[in-house]
Design brief:
The complex is a heterodimer of chains A (109) and B (114). Chain A has 109 residues and is an all-beta fold. Chain A contains no helices and 11 strands.
Chain lengths: 109, 114
């Protein structure tokens, strides 16, 4: 099956800083998604982004499908951005969604 | 409100005592899935279902059963729980079709097997 590698595993920021999270896939995937798990454990879908760039407020994501990676940008970080960010994808024709191990983000006031 | 509802949210049980974690969605989604989350391992898929009476194994199905008798419900059954099934479990659903890719997750069920 496909392997999903996320970096960095941990990230500590001061409020107001910007950050970039990366997700690499071992094989071509579609249905690439980014999720945020807040400190209470709730999982929220941030982006569905099989290719191209999308923006939602202070967050944006870019996927370069031909090079098998995706980036999540967080600008002007806030303490509420803390949590774990996961990327996930599945191969065409497969219903198995494979997750990376996540990037744990801590934003300090 | 569109949501996926899991119960119980927290459970402590003992080895070998059968238990069921229920999952229900009110969005008329065809696809439903169960994941377990363990420290350092991310989320791993246990089972998924494409529609009523259609289920398939994910990456870590051993020790689990599922059923899909109704479209809205997808219970996870642990016939004989063991301590290595102590984990945080998530149910999720989505519509199917080329345009339907966004997963909606339940709030999670934290299970401890002693």
């Amino acid at each position: 099956g496909i392997q999903v590698e996320q970096s960095p595993p941990d990230l500590i920021l001061q409020e107001g800083a910007n950050s970039t999270l990366r997700c690499n896939f071992s094989d071509s995937v579609n249905n690439l998604q980014w999720f945020h798990q807040n400190p209470w454990g709730q999982l929220i879908n941030l982006f569905y982004i099989p290719s191209g760039t999308k923006q939602n407020g202070r967050l944006s994501a870019t996927t370069v499908a031909t090079e098998r990676y995706s980036l999540l940008y967080i600008s002007s970080s806030q303490t509420t951005d803390s949590g774990v960010y996961f990327c996930a994808g599945r191969r065409g024709g497969s219903e198995k969604l494979v997750f990376g191990k996540g990037t744990k983000l801590t934003v300090n006031p | 409100e569109a949501q996926v509802t899991q119960n119980p949210r927290y459970l402590i049980t003992v080895t070998g005592k059968k238990l069921t974690v229920t999952c229900s969605q009110n969005m008329n989604h065809e696809y439903m899935s169960w994941y377990r989350q363990d420290p350092g391992l991310g989320l791993r898929q246990i089972y998924y279902s494409m529609n009523v009476e259609v289920t398939d194994k994910g990456d870590v199905p051993e020790g689990y059963k599922v059923s899909r008798k109704e479209k809205r419900n997808f219970p996870l059954i642990l016939e004989s729980p063991s301590p290595n099934q102590t984990s945080l479990y998530f149910c999720a659903s989505r519509a199917t079709g080329a345009w339907a890719n966004v997963l909606t997750f339940g709030a999670g069920s934290r299970l401890t097997v002693l």
